Amino acid sequence: METLKVPNYIKTVFIALLIIIIVFFMIVAKPILIPLLISGYIAMLLTSSCNWLERHKIPRSISAAICLIIFITVIGGILFVIYVQLRSFMHDLGGDVTTKLNSFVIEINKYCKETFGFDLGMPNGFEMKKAVDIVKPENGTTTTLFINMLNTLSDVVLLPVFIFFLLIYRDHLAVFVTKVFSKQDDNFLLRKLTSIRKIVHSYIVGASKVMGILAIVNTAVLFALGIKHAIFFGVVAGMLNIVPYLGPSLGVVMPFFFALMTKDSLFYPIAVAVSFIFIQLLEGAFLTPKITGGNVNLNALVTFLGLLIGGAIWGILGMILIIPTIAIMKKLFELSPDTQPYAYLFGEEDDNWFKKRKHKSERSAEEKKQVKKSDEEAKDVMDSDKDPV
């Protein structure tokens, strides 16, 4: 029985429709998918530690609980340090910094009015009430804010539960995938699943190392310049680096304006900006390629588009989660010959493709020339055999 061959343009339409359905599903199922994706990535990060404990005869449930408790303790310690630094920073905002901020805003408002002819609407300085009214939702009642707070709290509580169950049932989920793709070889599918887990693990570990190094270097630079709350600004700038392209730019804004308000000389804010830019150049050129390598292997165009789409669908969390998600999609596209072109679209550019194509064309032309020459020689031999003696 002959199989019906689907044209390539029909396959392209089907894949485009599938992407639209996935994006729509991501929008509708946002409250469930965000904690589930975060839990899945953290579970992939902790899987190697769980495997190590299980190899030492520790039951799976206990191994998962131990890894989860250690992970929560580490994250809680980091958040506690940030909280202490944030309290100190907020305490300073209530003193001289607020006065200097208001003076700075009044001067800016006056300069814009006299030079450009428009008023920023802050003749008396920065008014907190106006700022709250700007960021406050249109229908932001107390009940709505309370419900949103409960939803956020429930997501935080659900994270450890999701992580625990994903660690326990990870083999069950792997068997499920092999049954879904029953036409593929089981060993091949398991290798691909292991490859996906290692990609996410390497990405998270590498990004954490880069953030830690940047936090230390940024803090050291701010300490050397005499900027107050150097630990807070350095750690925040390092953590923002997890958002490619946009995070490093946001990380320099706060220490720049804080130095502008608290220091009497323009040297300090300029030195902060130049130092952070230089650090980011070194990070992009040496640090990230050395630590993370080609684990994700996505080109800059797809990464930037992914950040825009992730930010539009899920906000800041979407911008953080979209990079490993696209890397997983790239690996899934590599499973089928029909979707391998899309995997190539997500990946880095192959500089040798045109060279290979040129060599292949030259080799093909040479082969045709050889075949033509052989045919002519064979024809000459046949013609000579036909000549009478």
Account of the 3D structure:
With 389 residues, this protein is mainly α. Helix content is 81%, strand content 0%. It is built from 14 helices and no strands. The chain has helices at residues 8-28, 30-55, 60-93, 96-115, 128-135, 142-168, 170-180, 186-225, 230-240, 246-262, 267-291, 300-333, 340-346, 353-386. Helix 9 (230-240) runs antiparallel to helix 10 (246-262) and helix 12 runs antiparallel to helix 13 (340-346). The longest helix is centred in the middle third of the chain and has 40 residues, at 186-225. The chain is globular, with a radius of gyration of 29 Å. It starts with 7 loop residues before the first helix and ends with a helix. The model has no long low-confidence stretch (mean pLDDT 78).
The biggest beta sheet is recorded as: none
Total of helices: 14
- Tell me the helix content: over 70%
Mean model confidence by pLDDT? 78
Distance from first to last alpha carbon? 58 Å
- Quaternary structure state of the chains depicted: single chain
Shape: globular
**How many strand segments?**
0
Strand content: under 5%
Radius of gyration: 29 Å
Descriptors for this entry?
mainly alpha, 14 helices
Layout: helices, strands, pairs:
Elements: H1 8-28, H2 30-55, H3 60-93, H4 96-115, H5 128-135, H6 142-168, H7 170-180, H8 186-225, H9 230-240, H10 246-262, H11 267-291, H12 300-333, H13 340-346, H14 353-386
Helix pairs in contact: 2-3, 2-6, 2-8, 2-12, 3-6, 3-9, 8-9, 8-11, 8-12, 9-10, 10-11, 12-13
